[in-house]
Amino acid sequence: MESSLPELPADTVQRIASELRCHPTDERVALHLDEEDKLRHLREYFYIPKMRDLPPIDLSLVNKDENAIYFLGNSLGLQPKMVKTYLEEELDKWAKIGAYGHEVGKRPWITGDEKITGLMTDIVGANEEEIVLMNGLTVNLHLLLLTFFKPTPKRYKILLEAKAFPSDHYAIESQLQLHGLNVEKSMLIIKPREGEEILRTEDILEVIEKEGDSIAVILFTGVHFYTGQFFNIPAITKAGQAKGCFVGFDLAHAVGNVELHLHDWGVDFACWCSYKYLNSGAGGLAGAFVHEKHAYTIKPALVGWFGHELSTRFKMDNKLQLIPGASGFRISNPPIFLVCSLHASLEVFKQTTMKALRRKSILLTGYLEYMIKHYYNKDKAESKKPHVNIITPSNIEDRGCQLTLTFSAPMKYIFKELEKRGVVCDKREPNGIRVAPVPLYNSFHDVYKFVTLLISALDSAEAKS
C-alpha cells in the first residue's frame, strides 16, 4: 500500500508549472502531464461517449462533437473496443459449428473462464489457482460466507463497516438469519467517530482486539463505495486472523483501481464484480479468491458439476472429485458472452501493470484534488461563495481514484448542471457526488475540463441562490 511516487501530486503540479512558467491551474500543465503520460495510448482501446449522445445534455452549453467527461468508471467502466469482435467470434462459432464450440477455438465454452483467469493474477495479486471467475458478486459472497461463516455459541459475529454497500449488508443479514441468529447481536458494525466520515484504522483494530474472540468472520470492503476510503487490508487481515477470525473482502471498488496483494497479505477470501474498473459491461462476470492455504481444508458448502475435476467430469458417475481451492466453488458452466467482454478488458490491463496504473492514478486524482482545493478551499472562500468539501481521505495511500465531493450549495442542482455540461458522474445519498478519473482511459486534460465545468455549474448554482 505504498504510493510508489518520488513526490506528492501537488509538488509535481507546482514543479511542472514552474518549468512551464505558468500558474499551476493553467491548461498547459494538464497538456504537459498528458504528453508525459506513458499510459495515454490505453485510452484508444475504449469507446468514449460523445456529448451529443448523452440523455441529460444541454447542447447550448457544449460542443456536441466533443468527448464527454466520463468520471463514472467507479460505477460502470467504458466499453473496450474489442468486445464486439470477441462476441461476434463466439456468435459466429455458435452459428457455424453449434455444440462443437464447447471444445474448440481460443475460448472453448467449457473452459472459457479458465482461459482468461491468468489475466487476473496481477490485478488482484494472487496465484491463478486462487482465482475463479463466476456468477455475480453477491452470489459469490453468499457462496463464500456459507463456507467460511460457521458460527459457534462463542464465535458467532460478523464484523463490517458502517454504511457498507447494501448488497453486502443484506447478504450478511440473511446469512445470520439462515443460522437462526439474532441480527442485532450478531452483526457488529463499526462506525466512524462522531463528526467524522472516515474510519480510522486504529479504531478498526481496537474493535477486533476487543471483540475478536466472538467474531467468526470479518467482512470489509476494500474501497468504500461512498467515501472512497481504501482500507488497510493487510493490517485488518493480520489483526483478525490473530484473534482466530476468517477475514474476507468485497473488492468491488478496489479491483482494477488499487494495487492488491491478496496472496501475500494472507486474505482468507474475497470477491469482486467486474463491470466497474474492470470494464466488462453491466452485470459482467464476477470473481472470487480463496487463499491457497485453504485449498484442501475448506470446501464449498454448495457444490455443482463444474466444481468437479475436468478430467473425470464427463464420466457422469456422480462421484464427486472436487477441484481443490477456488475452482471447486464453480457451480455452472461459464457464460461465454460475459467471458468475452471481460476478456477484452483484461487484455488491455495486460499491456501494463497495476503498479504503473496506480502510479498514474495517484497523480491524476491528486491533480483533481489540487485543482478543486485551489478554487474551492473552504478556509479561504468568501462566506457567500459555494465551497466544495472532499470527504475522501487526503492521504494518497488511503484512497483509490475516486473523490467524493459535498457542497454548500444544493447537491442535486449541482449534479444536474454537471450533467447538462457533459460530465458523467453520479450522486449518492445523503449528499455526495462521486467523481472517478480512471487511469486506463481518463486524461489529465479531462480533469482540467471537469474543473472548468464544475466552476460553471457552481456559478450557476450561486446565481440561483
Automatic annotation (TrEMBL):
<dbReference type="GO" id="GO:0030170">
    <property type="term" value="F:pyridoxal phosphate binding"/>
</dbReference>
<keyword id="KW-0378">Hydrolase</keyword>
<dbReference type="InterPro" id="IPR015424">
    <property type="entry name" value="PyrdxlP-dep_Trfase"/>
</dbReference>
<comment type="subunit">
    <text>Homodimer.</text>
</comment>
<feature type="binding site">
    <location>
        <begin position="165"/>
        <end position="168"/>
    </location>
    <ligand>
        <name>pyridoxal 5'-phosphate</name>
    </ligand>
</feature>
<dbReference type="GO" id="GO:0019441">
    <property type="term" value="P:L-tryptophan catabolic process to kynurenine"/>
</dbReference>
<dbReference type="GO" id="GO:0019805">
    <property type="term" value="P:quinolinate biosynthetic process"/>
</dbReference>
<dbReference type="GO" id="GO:0097053">
    <property type="term" value="P:L-kynurenine catabolic process"/>
</dbReference>
<feature type="binding site">
    <location>
        <position position="250"/>
    </location>
    <ligand>
        <name>pyridoxal 5'-phosphate</name>
    </ligand>
</feature>
<protein>
    <recommendedName>
        <fullName>Kynureninase</fullName>
        <ecNumber>3.7.1.3</ecNumber>
    </recommendedName>
</protein>
<dbReference type="GO" id="GO:0034354">
    <property type="term" value="P:'de novo' NAD+ biosynthetic process from L-tryptophan"/>
</dbReference>
<keyword id="KW-0963">Cytoplasm</keyword>
<comment type="pathway">
    <text>Amino-acid degradation; L-kynurenine degradation; L-alanine and anthranilate from L-kynurenine: step 1/1.</text>
</comment>
<feature type="binding site">
    <location>
        <position position="333"/>
    </location>
    <ligand>
        <name>pyridoxal 5'-phosphate</name>
    </ligand>
</feature>
<feature type="binding site">
    <location>
        <position position="137"/>
    </location>
    <ligand>
        <name>pyridoxal 5'-phosphate</name>
    </ligand>
</feature>
<keyword id="KW-0662">Pyridine nucleotide biosynthesis</keyword>
<comment type="pathway">
    <text>Cofactor biosynthesis; NAD(+) biosynthesis; quinolinate from L-kynurenine: step 2/3.</text>
</comment>
<feature type="binding site">
    <location>
        <position position="305"/>
    </location>
    <ligand>
        <name>pyridoxal 5'-phosphate</name>
    </ligand>
</feature>
<dbReference type="InterPro" id="IPR015421">
    <property type="entry name" value="PyrdxlP-dep_Trfase_major"/>
</dbReference>
<dbReference type="Pfam" id="PF22580">
    <property type="entry name" value="KYNU_C"/>
</dbReference>
<keyword id="KW-0007">Acetylation</keyword>
<feature type="binding site">
    <location>
        <position position="253"/>
    </location>
    <ligand>
        <name>pyridoxal 5'-phosphate</name>
    </ligand>
</feature>
<dbReference type="GO" id="GO:0030429">
    <property type="term" value="F:kynureninase activity"/>
</dbReference>
<feature type="binding site">
    <location>
        <position position="138"/>
    </location>
    <ligand>
        <name>pyridoxal 5'-phosphate</name>
    </ligand>
</feature>
<feature type="binding site">
    <location>
        <position position="275"/>
    </location>
    <ligand>
        <name>pyridoxal 5'-phosphate</name>
    </ligand>
</feature>
<comment type="function">
    <text>Catalyzes the cleavage of L-kynurenine (L-Kyn) and L-3-hydroxykynurenine (L-3OHKyn) into anthranilic acid (AA) and 3-hydroxyanthranilic acid (3-OHAA), respectively. Has a preference for the L-3-hydroxy form. Also has cysteine-conjugate-beta-lyase activity.</text>
</comment>
<dbReference type="GO" id="GO:0005737">
    <property type="term" value="C:cytoplasm"/>
</dbReference>
<dbReference type="GO" id="GO:0043420">
    <property type="term" value="P:anthranilate metabolic process"/>
</dbReference>
<comment type="similarity">
    <text>Belongs to the kynureninase family.</text>
</comment>
<dbReference type="InterPro" id="IPR010111">
    <property type="entry name" value="Kynureninase"/>
</dbReference>
<keyword id="KW-0663">Pyridoxal phosphate</keyword>
<feature type="modified residue" description="N6-(pyridoxal phosphate)lysine">
    <location>
        <position position="276"/>
    </location>
</feature>
<dbReference type="InterPro" id="IPR015422">
    <property type="entry name" value="PyrdxlP-dep_Trfase_small"/>
</dbReference>
